[in-house]
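Researcher: Let's do a round of design. I'm pasting the structure tokens now; please hold your answer until I've finished.
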């Protein structure tokens, strides 16, 4: 799955999908995609990520106190 960073719009590949969906995880491992060389994995703050369309991540992925209807 690919997401974008809020601060500069860089495309990043999510390497730890369970952490993305876990509202108690504040960081996840990802790899930036910019240029031809494969980048090293690094931690990303989930709150600083958005979908490539520009939409924010669902609140239930970020807030452990989010109530599902």
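Researcher: That's everything. Go ahead.
Model: Designed sequence:
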């Amino acid at each position: 799955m690919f997401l974008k960073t809020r601060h500069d719009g860089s495309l990043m590949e999510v390497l730890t999908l369970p952490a993305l969906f876990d509202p108690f995880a504040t960081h996840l491992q990802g790899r930036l995609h910019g240029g031809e060389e494969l980048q090293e994995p690094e931690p990303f703050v989930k709150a600083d990520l958005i979908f490539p369309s520009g939409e924010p991540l669902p609140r239930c992925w970020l807030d452990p106190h989010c109530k599902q209807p």
